[in-house]
What does this fold into?
Amino acid sequence: MSDSEIISGILTGAGLNLIEKPENSDLLIINTCIVKQPTENKILDRIKEIHKKFPKKKLIISWCLPEAYPNLLNATKRVSLISMHRITEILKIIRNSFKNKPIRLLGNTKIEKVCLPKIRKNKTIDIVWICSGCLGDYSYCGTKLAKGNLISYSHEKTINEIKDAKERGCKEF
It folds into this structure.
């Protein structure tokens, strides 16, 4: 959930409105997860469904899927891709989408996902990132493929995020 909260925080911080119903929006963002094959299949089916139902809408696929399988959506010209490693550049993707120039921002540039703006779904819970990546190499898991090797985030930034969230009313971390 924190991934979507970060995307929401970046978008609202730039003055964009979040719309719940796809039919009322100008742009659709599908935040993906591909940890296991059944989840990946559901995500791919959802992308196809949205693509068919809203053929004129701008579409951005974010997070794990674009990084793990960048060529999977080659046939879809109107789709932009952004990996979790480039999420702070999502506004660039949006600007290009509205110019009818879908782009792909992929690559394993490691950003720390702490102290980024968030719109929390639950005002009393803050999901705090302390690391990203994976040490394992399991055939059923796409995490390592999408996120790369494990990296830990700054202790100082992590503590600052918890303090800030506590000041904003969070009680669970």
